[in-house]
Amino acid sequence: MCRAIEEEAANCAIFPEGTRSRDGALRPFKAAGTALLTARLDLPVVVGTIDGTWPCGRPSDMLHHLAGLDIRVRIEPPRPMAELRSDPRAARAAIRALMERRLVEMRAEPPPPLPVVPAAKRLSQPPRTG
Questions:
Q1: What global pTM score does this model have?
Q2: DSSP one-letter string for 20-47
């Protein structure tokens, strides 16, 4: 996996809990994924916090419930991989604390208003040509 990331200049997403939360609470982080990447790669780490997908039991459930979900995402500035490599436990703890703060912030914000789209008007207009 690491070789493919380097050769293809690909992005890689690691979900540190190893599974999806069933209640929205942050679960304990697993060290295996970050240990593999920190040992073999020297790429920046971008921490992202996602909230609002937990009401779906399985990822495929999102296809059926996406319109009713209030999904929020926060992306942090890149951090050097050396930070993780030098003290993995401390780095994981700092990342976890950051994610916990972001979850509190996101959950304190009111949901954004839903856009009003006059669907009936759009459907009744003939398609434009030319």
A1: 0.73
A2: --SSSPPPPPPSHHHHHHHHH----B--
